[in-house]
Design brief:
The chain has 133 residues and is of the alpha+beta class. The protein is built from three helices and eight strands; from the N terminus they run αβαββββββαβ. Strands 4, 5, 6, 7 and 8 form a five-stranded antiparallel sheet that branches. Strands 1-3-2 form a three-stranded antiparallel sheet, with helices on one face. The chain is globular.
């Protein structure tokens, strides 16, 4: 299956799995998706992840995180910011803050894929891929 926007597909698979109440979601792998997954894990938005090599493209298995009492997903919102039809590039001073710093923006920079806070700390701008809170 050919996907024109793989990052939007990645976010949609996570969003749909959470809506359905799944514990694990499988997503076709790429370097960009792997780095976004690592950021989500480091920031505490997902429980675990595993990269599976299937002798093709590879698969990312993500264990979704829910509140133990209310069973509400930890990720409240996943939004694609920069789209293939309209790329959104920002300098270091203009990178958007998500809910005054409570959420994160994932930025593709010359130093790799970083959160908005790391990009500001490293003094680099780039393409804002998505926002999460």
């Amino acid at each position: 299956m050919y996907v024109t926007d793989p990052i939007a597909d990645y976010l949609t698979r996570i969003r749909n799995a959470q809506t359905a109440g799944h514990k694990v979601v499988e997503i076709p792998a790429s370097k960009m998706k792997k780095s976004i997954t690592e950021i989500l894990y480091d920031q505490g938005y997902i429980l675990k992840y595993k990269f599976v090599d299937d002798n093709k493209q590879g698969i990312i298995k993500i264990a979704l995180k829910y509140d133990p009492v209310t069973k509400v997903p930890v990720i409240r919102s996943l939004k694609r910011y920069s789209k293939p039809g309209l790329r959104q590039y920002f300098g270091v001073d203009d990178i958007p803050r998500v809910i005054n710093g409570l959420g994160i923006a994932i930025v593709s920079t010359s130093k790799g894929v970083l959160t908005d806070k790391e990009a500001r700390k490293n003094n680099v701008g780039g393409e804002v891929l998505c926002t999460i809170y």
